[in-house]
Write a structure and sequence with these properties.
It is a single chain. By secondary structure, the protein is α/β, with parallel strands linked by helices. The chain has eight helices and twelve strands. The strands form two sheets. A six-stranded mixed β-sheet has the order 3-2-1-11-12-9. The chain has a six-stranded mixed β-sheet with strand order 4-5-6-10-7-8, with helices on one face. The two termini are 33 Å apart.
Length: 241
Amino acid sequence: MRYAVLSDIHGNLEALRAVLADCAGQVDGVLCLGDLVGYGADPAACVELVAERAELLVAGNHEYGVTGQLALEWFNPLARAAAEWTAGTLADDQRSWLAGLPLTARLGEATLVHASPRHPDAWEYVLTAAEGFAAFTAFDTALAFVGHSHLPGYWSVGAGRSARRVGAVDLALDRAHRYIVNVGSVGQPRDRDPRASYAIWDRAAGRVAIRRVPYDLAEARRKIVAAGLPRFLADRLQRGA
């Protein structure tokens, strides 16, 4: 089985469609690590498309924010403004569906979680080498997929060695090692590369690779501005930051 692993779509329908087109015919299923909504102008359409396509998914902090499970004071002012707008845009049944998503899920040898496996509901970022290595004690699978930081990369431990890599991922999974892989962001990359980021996990071959996909960035930016959302949310897409 081969899976596309998506995270941090953030209401960016153009990026989501481009990723789904890119993985069409290459994968048997889609997994999602949360933050379908927030920042972008098409939260409802993204929710509907992911609900239709994803085999397994977990909640992100933006799902918790727009459904009242996380105080909006937790967000910075731009994220709060987007969350308030998003909450008013989604239909009641969409908010109910988002509110019912679990914080973690498991598929075979992989754990799925939006933020840190250590405290999924604390929304901790896993950024540094130390933060990643500390998180291995919180799950017992060989592999964990995470998002939240919008920065692709991985951590590995085992056989007396540990490694941390930021950026491009093309891993042949070693049975003597365990891994945490951040798949990056579909809808709002922050690694100075504006292309959508997602991973393909080939279970049979034991491989995980990040793919980058161009999309209609100008249209995504236009929609954000037209919706009356903060212009910064449109401009940062172009910078990939």
